[in-house]
Structures are given as structure tokens and as C-alpha cells.
């Protein structure tokens, strides 16, 4: 490629970048990416937050018995442990296997993921905070590779007072 072609290409790239910057600046967006950073850093669970959970809108073979009926988010800046209770139709041994590891993690200022996992299966609950409620989707994950979509259900968590001495062993 000749130097004339390179200069021409550089001019086009420069013009496209200028147009892109002008478009971004004039997009009318009232939220600056910089202004959202403090919100992400200030979120923390200072004391346990407890939620009773209900499920609907099953996809594939999902059933409410696969998912916890209650959980508590334990203190943390943007992640932490989770205490939970399993559905009465799921035996203790199966629940212990699927909830060997239990954590919550903040994604955005208004949403989080609660994850329960074991050696072969896991539960992923993605929810958004809407007032005192958590609303989202609970998904059953397995090492067995199957067709999408994965078994899942809509989940609604209603905030409630926590029992005394809530801990991961609850």
C-alpha cells in the first residue's frame, strides 16, 4: 500500500472516530459512566437480608422442588455467603450435594446472582431488586449436556425479618 493510501485511510479513521465521539456526547444520556462507579462501590450487606421465595413460569422440566424456599444474604461489600432452606420435596442429601458452595455476588447496583453449586449440579438465581422484593429467574444447571433452554422458573423473593443467629449452616 502506498503512503498516499495510508494517509487517506488514516483520515477516514480519524473522521469516523470524531463522528463517533460527537454521537456519544450528543446522545442525550443523563447518566455518566463515572457517576455510577460510587454506587457500585457503596453497596454492601451490613446485616443479613432474608427472603421467602416463590416460583412460577416453569421452562422445560423445572419444578419448584429444585430450588430453595428461603435464603439469607450474609454480610459482604459486593459478595458474600448465603444461608438457605431447601424445598420439603427435596431430600437433605441431594440439597447438601447441590449447595456445597453457596455465594451471592453483585452484578449492578440493582441486581445480583445467588449461586448454589456442588460437584455435578448447580442453581443460579439472577434477580433484580425492586423495593423490598427480588424478582428474576432461577436456573437448574447440570453437568449433563442437554438442549437449551435450561430448566428454569421465575422467582420472586419477599423480604422478611431474619431469624436470630442466621449463618451459612442454617
Description:
This protein is of the alpha+beta class. It folds into 2 domains: 3-30; 44-160, Lipocalin, CATH 2.40.128. It is built from 3 helices and 8 strands; from the N terminus they run ααβββαβββββ. The longest helix is centred in the N-terminal third of the chain and has 23 residues, at 3-25. The radius of gyration is 23 Å and the shape is globular.
Structure at a glance:
The protein is 24% helix and 39% strand.
How are the elements arranged and paired?
Elements: H1 3-25, H2 33-42, E1 49-59, E2 70-73, E3 79-85, H3 92-98, E4 101-108, E5 111-117, E6 121-130, E7 133-142, E8 152-160
Antiparallel strand pairs: 1-2, 1-8, 2-3, 3-4, 4-5, 5-6, 6-7, 7-8
Name the poorly predicted regions.
5-42
What portion of residues is helical?
A: 10-25%
Approximate shape: globular
Give the number of DSSP strands. 8
Counting copies of identical and different chains, the oligomeric state is single chain
Global mean pLDDT:
79
The ordered H/E elements are HHEEEHEEEEE
Q: How would you classify the helix and strand content by structural class?
A: alpha+beta
**Distance between the ends:** 69 Å
Side-by-side strand order of the widest sheet: 1-2-3-4-5-6-7-8
**Rg value:** 23 Å
Kindly give the count of domains. 2
CATH class bucket of the largest domain = Mainly Beta
CATH topology of the largest domain: Lipocalin
* Strand coverage percent: 35-45%
Largest β-sheet summary: 8 strands, antiparallel, barrel
CATH architecture of the largest domain: Beta Barrel
Number of helices: 3
Amino acid at each position: 500500500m502506498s503512503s498516499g493510501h495510508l494517509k487517506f485511510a488514516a483520515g477516514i479513521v480519524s473522521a469516523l472516530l470524531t463522528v463517533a465521539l460527537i454521537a456519544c456526547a450528543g446522545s442525550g444520556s443523563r447518566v455518566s459512566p463515572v457517576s455510577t462507579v460510587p454506587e457500585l462501590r457503596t453497596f454492601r450487606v451490613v446485616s443479613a437480608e432474608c427472603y421467602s421465595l416463590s416460583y412460577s413460569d416453569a421452562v422445560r422440566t423445572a419444578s419448584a422442588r429444585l430450588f430453595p424456599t428461603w435464603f439469607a444474604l450474609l454480610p459482604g461489600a459486593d459478595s458474600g455467603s448465603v444461608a438457605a432452606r431447601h424445598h420439603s420435596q427435596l431430600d437433605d442429601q441431594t440439597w447438601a450435594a447441590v449447595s456445597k458452595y453457596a455465594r451471592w455476588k453483585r452484578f449492578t447496583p440493582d441486581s445480583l446472582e445467588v449461586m448454589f453449586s456442588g460437584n455435578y449440579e448447580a442453581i443460579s438465581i439472577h434477580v433484580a431488586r425492586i423495593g423490598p422484593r427480588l424478582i428474576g429467574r432461577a436456573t437448574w444447571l447440570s453437568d449433563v449436556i442437554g438442549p437449551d433452554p435450561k430448566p428454569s422458573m421465575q422467582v420472586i423473593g419477599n423480604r422478611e425479618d431474619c431469624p436470630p443467629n442466621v449463618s451459612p449452616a442454617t
